[in-house]
Amino acid sequence: MSAHPAPIPLDAGLAIEDLPSDTAADVGRLHALASVMRDEREQVLGFPGNLDFSLEELAPLLGMLFNNVGDPDCRDASDIGAKLYELAVLEYVTRLAGALPSDVYGYVASSSSEALLHGLAAARRRMPDAPVYASDQAHYSIGRACELLRMELVTVASLPDGSMDAADLRLQVLLRRGTAGGAIVAATCGTTMRGAVDDIAALRGAAAAAGPVHVHVDAAAGGLVAAHTSPQPSWSFAHGADSLNISGHKILGLPVPAGISLTRRELMPQVMGGEYVGTADRTLACSRSGLASLLMWARLRSLGRSGMAALVMRCQDVAAYAVDRLEEAGVRPERVHGSLTVTFDRPPAWVVQKWHLACAGPIAHLVAVGHVTRAAVDELAADLAGARWEAAA
């Protein structure tokens, strides 16, 4: 992506004017938009999330406001939220992340980036002078969070598979030993381009020379996958995480972005809130979307634990199939064990545009989330092989 992408031009037909619009025409326009997106989803190869879901039967929820105010486990003055459903989602995800609900504070956030900011804020509160160590493959939202929280960000080299280099982390910590009050390690479970998983047990050991260590795991794209991978990588509370964030829509599939923030309960601040809201509040947002919790709950209930495991296994199977087919196409595919991400040589612009591919420098990737099929992989492989043939001609 260029440093300054082209702006989206205004559409005069969408302007909000003085008088009410033609509601029937607007509804028709929105239905047409949904139809176009539904038709194109087979060619959206994994970015920005799983498009294979159907929650239309929950449309009556759109006629109500579900406002979860403050902590999920406390009633609030308005009492028009969906906190019981939020708690059920948190209980499920917390156990997947290797912890007991009684030991972890969590909430459903508007996005995984918000949840990441919440986790790093907990780390900063604990160690206000400690720098944040993140790899050169970390998501850019870590840098943005550090800017907002005024935390020093130290970039750590990555290994060829895209995971953080524990040896370089140890070196970076030693270079700053005695000048910083500990180390905050922002690890990644499912790096942006390669889907790599940082070994948080090794990283905690590498940072130990700094003194106290807080490990936050950005598990937006990889947490639900890692939890169902055998052998399971070192990524969760069971492996030494202090806080982590998981996306609600990337793997699971939702009609709205959502995230989950989880932090060891003893690291949370004193209860905030007050009489006006009538609740305790240690979230970042205060008023939060109860609708997101309801949709996530409905999706997880429709799958069950066994269905979630089967979904991940099916996606991993498609990813493995993609490696074989793209190898035949001659584009040098690579895949980290268990990951849904397959990288390959960056193709011509027309292939990138057709398949909505995410690219970085010389590589592109596909992410074999739920709506990505073997048939789509076959068609992509044919396009890639054809593009190579055209380039050689």
Mean pLDDT: 94
Helix content: 25-40%
User: Uncertain segments of ≥5 residues (pLDDT<50)?
Assistant: none
What name does the CATH topology of the largest domain carry?
A: Aspartate Aminotransferase, domain 2
The coarse overall form would be: globular
Largest sheet: 7 strands, mixed
Query: What's the total number of strands?
Result: 14
Class per helix and strand makeup: alpha/beta
Q: Give the N-terminus to C-terminus distance in angstroms.
A: 28 Å
Order of helices and strands: HEHEHEHEHEHEHEEEEEHEHEEH
CATH class of the largest domain: Alpha Beta
Number of domains: 2
Percent strand equals 15-25%
What is the annotated CATH architecture of the largest domain? Answer: 3-Layer(aba) Sandwich
Would you summarize the structure shown here?
This protein has helices at residues 23-40, 83-96, 112-126, 140-149, 166-175, 200-207, 223-226, 290-328, 349-355, 374-392; strands at 67-69, 104-109, 132-135, 153-156, 183-188, 213-218, 243-247, 259-264, 273-274, 279-280, 287-289, 341-345, 358-360, 363-367. The protein has 393 residues and is of the alpha/beta class. The protein has 2 domains: 27-52 and 305-392, Aspartate Aminotransferase, domain 1; 60-301, Aspartate Aminotransferase, domain 2 (3-Layer(aba) Sandwich).
